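SUBJECT: A protein chain and its fold
Encoding: whole-number codes for local backbone shapes
Chain under study, with its fold:
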Amino acid sequence: MYLLTGDLTVILTGFVVQGFFGGSVPLLAPAYMTERFPTEVRTSASAFCYHFGLVFGGSVPPIISYFAIEHHMGFALPMLIGTITGAVTMVCALLLSPETKGKVFVSDLMSHSVEVPVVSPAS
């Protein structure tokens, strides 16, 4: 809501507060994503998802600038719309994703029982 005011002090204070608390989602996203995939593809899958989101995230500044300049909206309203859209998307993704707490993932590589010979150390 700080973006809808004309007071520079409120805008700067709101920006700093958002920086302190809004930065928590990108910092936790890689750790959160690793729990979503089986062990054998965990690193590759989470890196793919993270970089896929990074590509779309890189398109946000040009889109905000386009609406701010070409449609004479200023930067505050497009930033507000982008922030709300991102927040709603994140909440929907969390609500629609399956719960993995306490779930044991079994690797496809480990689904077949293989006997491993036990070698005792030489005396």
